[in-house]
Amino acid sequence: MASASKINFDEPIPEMIKRLKSEHRKFESDFVKVKTSIEDNNVILASEIIQSISDEIIHHAVEEEARLMRVIMHKVKEESAESIKIIQEHNWVMNFLKNRIITIEKVSASSDPDEYEQAKNDLNEFVSNLRKHFKEEEAIVFPLALRAEAGD
Ligand SMILES: [Fe+2]
Ligand SMILES: [Fe+2]
Q1: How far does the centroid of ligand 1 lie from the alpha carbon of residue 114, in Å?
Q2: What residues have their beta carbon closer than 5 A to ion ligand 1?
Q3: How far is CA 14 from the centre of its chain?
Q4: Please, which of 36, 109, 118, 137 could form a disulfide with 141 given CB 3.0 to 4.6 Å?
C-alpha cells in the first residue's frame, strides 16, 4: 500500500499540506498510545501499534519527498538547505520501520533485561524524533512549499 504509484499529483499543494498536517495529528494520537504502552512495560504492544501505522508513515514521507521537495527544488532552490536536511530525516524513519522494529518485536519480557531496556529506549527515541520532525516540517518545510507554489 505504501507505493509511490499511488501519489496523487493532481491534489493542490495547499490541500495536500492540510491533509499532511491532519495526518501528523492522527500519528500523534497513535504515539500517545505507544508512550502509554512503553510506560506499562508493554514493548510488544508498543511495537505492534507502530507496525500498524508503518505503511501510512512511509507513504506520508514518500509524498512529502515527491511533491513538496519537488516544488521547493523547482522554485526556491536557493532557500532549500534547511528543508532538505529535515526531509533527509526520513532515512532514519525508514530504517527504523524496516529494520529495527522487527528486532524490537522479538523482544519479550523474558529476554535479556538490557535488550528490553534498549528496545524501550529506542521506541521512546523514535516517537520523540518523529514528533520533532513533524514540528520542523510544519515550521519550515510546509510554509516554504506553500510560498514556492504561490510564487508561480
Ligand atoms: Fe516527513
Ligand atoms: Fe510529515
Answers
A1: 31
A2: 61, 64
A3: 20
A4: 137
